[in-house]
Design brief:
Number of domains: 1
Low-confidence stretches: none
Distance between the termini: 52 Å
CATH architecture: 3-Layer(aba) Sandwich
Strand order of the largest sheet: 6-7-8-3-9-10-13-12
Number of strands: 14
Number of helices: 11
Largest sheet: 8 strands, mixed
Oligomer: single chain
Order of helices and strands: EEEHEEHEHHHEHEHEEHHEHEEHE
Length: 342
């Protein structure tokens, strides 16, 4: 395993049981995450994109073991040695959770309305019995200033803050234990567009100052391009493409990536987007299609796509794609999908 890798996920699966009847008998499973492989390097931001319900947030929660994975391995570098989070004991998980924190999507529901900002941010320190009450308060005041708030706000409550300010409080709470890896679960999707850029810039500034590693989960590809070094594209519980951010946007190699690029809104009224929507609906994750998951909707599908499932392979240095015809297709990047209409 490479020295610069901080997290390596192998064959990760998370199936949720479907229960019916009075006895709640299991009649099937929702394959939320279905055999995912990827790694994150120290100090980088890895973006994870895909439409709602594809398994992005479930993947992030499996990494923190909020959800117990069904199968697979999640190896995290702890004290220069890799520990499998899936099979870690209670004591090991206590250490791991100090080094991996999460920023949640909804700043309104992720903060306890009955707790002051001081208690919310200091809670991780208190749970882990770090410092005295006075030192914890000093740490909270310092963190508030780091995220762009004022230390005199420590005695206020969440309802006294705007959405963007609440998310800053959530970021401060995630930083309290000096983590190495932060899972950002759509941290700007619930915010106004004007506030989203401020929060993204804050996350970038904190990364430069402290060297954090981010797994940045989002469905907004423009936000992911802004902050990510590499991007993973997910569809129906599987990773279909991984590449550097610019490569994903300029030269996509998977048809689903091309369709996502066509869905990015543009702000120039003189430009026209050449959209390439996929026909039909997303298949049921409890009964996925045979072969390639995308083949019922893919405009480039052939018989081979129905018969066999493509593997996620490295077809160029640092580029991974799960498509039988990745080397043959001529797909359009974001700039090619936009043309001047003047």
């Amino acid at each position: 395993m490479r020295d610069d890798i901080i997290l390596k996920v192998e064959s990760l699966k998370k199936y949720f049981p479907i229960r019916k009847g009075i006895l709640q008998k299991v009649v099937g499973h929702v394959r939320a995450v279905d055999g995912v492989d990827f790694f994150i390097k120290e100090g980088e931001t890895l973006g994870l994109v895909g439409e709602s319900g594809c398994g992005k947030s479930t993947t992030g929660r499996c990494i923190l073991r909020v959800y117990q994975p069904t199968e697979g391995q999640i190896n995290f570098k702890l004290d220069e040695e890799f520990t499998d989070i899936v099979h870690a004991g209670r004591q090991e998980m206590g250490k791991i959770r100090k080094s991996i924190q999460m920023i949640f999507q909804d700043p309104f529901s992720s903060l306890d309305s009955r707790m002051s900002i001081r208690d919310i941010i200091a809670e991780p320190l208190k749970v882990n019995k770090i410092g005295s009450r006075k030192s914890r308060t000093e740490r909270v005041e310092d963190l508030l200033q780091k995220v762009g708030l004022n230390k005199y706000q420590v005695n206020r409550y969440p309802h006294q803050f705007s959405g963007g300010q609440r998310q800053r409080v959530g970021i401060a709470r995630a930083l309290a234990l000096n983590p190495e890896l932060i899972v950002c679960d759509e941290p700007v999707s619930a915010l106004d567009v004007s506030v989203q850029a401020q929060v993204l810039n804050l996350l970038e500034d904190l990364q430069q100052e402290f060297g954090f590693t981010y797994l940045f989960i989002a469905h907004d590809l423009s936000a992911v391009e802004h902050i990510s070094d590499r991007v993973m594209v997910m569809y129906l519980g599987k990773i279909v493409e991984i590449a550097r951010s610019k490569e994903i946007y300029q030269t996509p190699q998977h048809p689903y990536t091309e369709a996502l690029l066509g869905s990015i809104p543009i702000g120039d009224p003189h430009s026209v987007k050449q959209r390439k929507p996929l026909p039909g609906d997303v298949p049921n994750p409890s009964d996925p299609p045979t072969g390639c998951n995308l083949h019922p909707r893919c405009p480039y599908n052939q018989d081979r796509c129905i018969e066999s499932e493509p593997e996620l392979i490295e077809n160029q240095e640092g580029r991974y794609v799960s498509c039988h015809f990745a080397d043959e297709l001529q797909l359009s990047g974001f700039e090619e999908l936009v043309r001047d209409a003047k």
